[in-house]
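Ex. 9. Protein: NADP-dependent oxidoreductase domain-containing protein.
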Amino acid sequence: MRNLLELEALAYLRVNTSLAYSEHYPREALSAVRHIDTAFAYQNETEVGVGIKASGVPRGQVWLTTKLDNSWHKRVAEGIDASLENLGTDYVDLYLIHWPCRTNPNMKEVYSDWDYVDTTSVSSPKLVAYNTSKGIHSTAYSYLGSTTSPLHKDATLLELAEKKGRSPQQVMFVWNITKGRSVIPKSVTADRIQANYEIDGLELTEEDIKVIDSMQGRDGSFLPQNYEKVFYHDDE
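Predicted structure tokens for NADP-dependent oxidoreductase domain-containing protein:
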């Protein structure tokens, strides 16, 4: 059985784009990395599975992650079976709850039979610190920000990247890895997929890390529209 500790050393591609690119992505990505991240909700698991097989990389060398859709939380066994069939494999290496909030099948209502807590006021650093204290591995999702908060255009980051002779994407990639997190980059071009992972020799000093830590707009969260509460289990 593969150990989650293997995941910490891996960087991987988030495949949630159109079907036209879904077979292409794994073939390109697996020339650089060995972890593919997808989800039932992306509606492209079949194409991802085809792309992995077409890459020629043995299945045992690929860490494959997919996710349980919100409306399937009461049908977990059925959900994983559907994903395995779509992906054309008999196992995945990691199966995640896509969003920690459970909805009814029409996705219009959050079920009330779980305990919930409002986390909209919890900052990402605090959440990551909690995860670390419980031995929970964190992954950097949208690690370059979003269309409304594009970190890769931040003046501070651009200055640091220029000093390092690297791209802002590569600097943020290494910053997250240095923090002990996995990273999920996404691209539609082969050159950029390769460039994201060309980080050999790129090291950040303690001062560099502090500079990124202090960047405005770096800390953020994203919740599905109208989902103001997410499930949060207190094991104490």
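Check your answer against this statement. The domain at 8-107 is CATH 3.20.20.100 (TIM Barrel).
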